[in-house]
Structures are given as structure tokens and as C-alpha cells.
Amino acid sequence: MKITVLGSGDAFGSGGRFNTCLHVEAGGAAILLDCGSSSMTALNRAGVDRNGLSAVLFTHFHADHFGALPAFLLDAQLVSRRKDPLTIAGPRGIAQRTATLLEAHFPGASSMSWRFPLSFVEIAPDRPGNVAGLAVEAFPMDHDERAGPCQGYRLAHGGKIFAYSGDTCWTEGLVPLAAGADVLLLECCTFEQRLPGHLDYRTVIEKRPQLSASRIILTHMGDSMLQAAEPLALERAHDGLVILP
Fold first, then answer.
1. CA 114, CA 98: separation in Å to the nearest integer?
2. What long-range pairs does 111-117 form, CB within 8 A, spacing at least 24?
3. Residue 55 in contact with residue 86, Cβ under 8 Å?
4. CATH at residue 224
5. Model pLDDT, residue 231
6. Phi then psi for 137, rounded to 5 degrees?
7. Phi, psi at 79, each rounded to 5°
8. CA dihedral (239, 79, 54, 71) positive or negative
9. Beta 235-236 vs 216-219: how paired, if at all?
10. Distance between CA 155 and CA 164 in Å, rounded?
11. How far apart are CA 28 and CA 238, in angstroms?
12. Quick check: bond before 231 cis, omega within 30?
């Protein structure tokens, strides 16, 4: 498994970073994990072949994680001229959320006749699934249920486990999410300020003994995290970081 962090920034692009977008390769297939509003620029800058992606998996429905999906689909239809099937996976309601977002961004697009087979897969804590050969298990996170259900995921392939929190404040669901994972990519929006629905570095360090992942990398960082003096006890992600669990 190989994960490339295409976007490690917060909702506001702090530090010039792209919104959340992870490129995950495993077993000859590739997917995106989240596809925030700036992700088409990130994909193009990184030279990612959009037609080489089998699926897009979402943690929740805020724009900085979900917002580039309309442009991605219209690109597949009109620019990349995709022919191969595409799976859109995520929390319950993923198909309706996609239609609503499409219509808001490009009126009329929700009723488009796609040139490629398009399918939707719901992943939930009681409904694990398989996405492009990756075993996917969901865990409930505590972020903003208006944009949810909000979920973290464990992706398993070839004996390796990659865990990703999505957006969340501290919740006991992080403990089983991290348990035994080779890598946990964990949101950490601020250094010490407590924000609703988000983690801060002080809390992460306090709770670190409960997170049994072999390696923890922090992402979704705002200015206070980006400006924190080195060294920190945990790694910070950056756009372009390659993770090999």
C-alpha cells in the first residue's frame, strides 16, 4: 500500500496547502480518500491520471473533503472522457449527497447520462466494505453530524493497515480506529486552541498512550500547527508526503 498526501491543509488552505485529498495505491488499483474543494488543482499538479482511479471514498460531506467531486465527475465526462467504471463510496446517503452537490455546482448535472458506469457504495460501522480491493472498515467520529455521518476508516491490504480519522474532536472511536494500525493519519487543526469538532495538539499528546498505531502523522493543520516550533513529538504531514505502511 502506498498513500500520497495530495492535500494536508485545513478548510481555509492555511499555509498554501491543498484541502484534504489522499491518493491510495494497493494491488494495482488506486483510489482517492476524500477530495476537497481544491483537489482538482492538486491532482493536476501531482500529475495523477484521473482515469487510473477506480473509486473515491469520502469521510464526510464538508466542502474541504467532498467539494471537488462535481468537478471530478464533469472532468471524467468531458475532459478525461472516462470509459471505465467509477465507484463513489462513503457514509450513508452518499448517492443523494452527490446529486445535491452536483446540482448546486452545475445545474442539470445531476440528471446527466454518464459515459461511464457510475456506482455508489455505502460504508458504515455496521457495514464494512471492499473498495477497489481494499478492505474498508468505518468508525464513527465526532465532528459535525450535519455533514455526516462523519467517519474514520481503516484500509487493509496485503497485511498492512492504514487508518485515517477524517475530521473529529477526541472520541473513544479513535482508540479502535488506531489499534494495531501501521500508520494513523490524524487530524490536528490547532496547537492548543479547542475548536468544536476538531483535535488540537495538546489533546493528541495527552491521549497518545491510548492510540496504539505504530506511527502517527498529523494532518488538516491550521496556522497554529504549521507555525509551531520544531521539534514536535509527532510528525506533521505535508502536501506530497508519501506514506508506506
1. 14
2. 112/77, 114/73, 114/76, 114/77, 115/77, 115/81, 115/82, 115/83, 116/76, 116/77, 116/82, 116/83, 116/84, 116/85, 116/86, 117/84, 117/85, 117/86
3. yes
4. 3.60.15.10
5. 85
6. -120, 130
7. -110, -60
8. positive
9. parallel
10. 8
11. 25
12. yes
For residue 111, count other CB atoms closer than 10 A to its CB: 9
For the chain (245 residues), the mean pLDDT of every run of 10, in chain order, is: 98 96 97 98 97 98 98 97 98 97 95 95 96 97 96 97 98 98 98 94 97 98 92 95 97
Structural domain count, the chain: 1
- DSSP letters spanning 155-211: EEETTEEEEE--S-SS-TTHHHHHTT-SEEEEE--BSS---TT--BHHHHHHHGGG-
Residue with grid cell 499555509, as numbered in its chain: 15
CB 213 within 8 A of CB 183: yes
The range of the structural domain enclosing residue 162 comes to 2-243
Residue 94: C-alpha distances to residues 33, 88, 178, 219 (Å): 14, 8, 25, 24
Q: Please, what is the Cα angle at 37 between 31 and 41, to 5 degrees?
A: 75
Q: What integer pLDDT is reported at residue 65 of this predicted model?
A: 98
- Alpha-carbon distance of 5 to 34, in angstroms, equals 11
Could you tell me how many residues make up the chain? 245
Instruction: State which amino acid sits at residue 18.
Output: F
* pLDDT at residue 229, rounded to an integer: 82
